Amino acid sequence: MEIYEIVTYFTLLLLLFSAARVVTTSNVIHAAISLVFTLALTATLFLLLSTQFVALVLVLVYIGAVIVLFLFGIMITRAPLGKNAELDNDKNKLIGATISGAIFLLFSYILINGFDGEIVITSGSSTELLGEILLSRFVFPFEIVSFVLLAALIGGITLARKDEALVDEDQV
Amino acid sequence: MIVQPVLVTAAALFSLGIYGILVRRNAVMVLLSIELILNAVNINFIIFDSMLADSLMQGQIFTIFIITIAAAEVGIGLAIVLMLFRNRQTANINEFDLMKW
Lengths: 172, 101
Description:
Chain A is mainly α. Chain A has helices at residues 3-24, 28-48, 52-76, 90-114, 127-134, 139-160, 164-168.
């Protein structure tokens, strides 16, 4: 076994552990930090598959921006910091574990049988080529996505700010 | 390198996200679980892109689109949670049953 494969399998194992910690820990801040680890390990996996640009986008957008938003959300909604037994819905635990376990078994069965013997040859991909394709062949979806981002920006501001008229009428 | 370990890990991440959505009570934690699911999809896209050696790199391009949409989704989702918290003084999704009859 090559060193490359050993590093990849180790990354996958750590990825599983940190993802399991996101959904099982009883501390909200620990869950957010575990998500940081999960995303960083995903970026590592992308680097190992030699898709450098996507790995860097993941680090910049997710770890840089989304996690900060999450931490703000946790602190603003006064989610109880520290250990908290009330975080999980114990009634749903068994049914949740059953459903997700069934989904996992089904997916694993299909994927293991469907992609038997398929291999990945990491040849390296060029960011220059990616940019050219993104701005030529996929330029229309690219513009649509920018429009979606603008709509999300306006929607987020409109939703989250206090409405002065409603404050005056004491309706908030 | 064979692809099955990566695919099975992505499937495990997806089912862990489903478990989180079903079990968690806090709305912010549910959004965290949705991020896990989107991450699993990203891993699948990248591994298939590498496996097929696509000359158009569609897997990578769609991953970039998914990351963008996920960022927008988190912004809107947290704004909605914030609004609900402001009106109800709680982020517990069990109590958001206004549209249930």
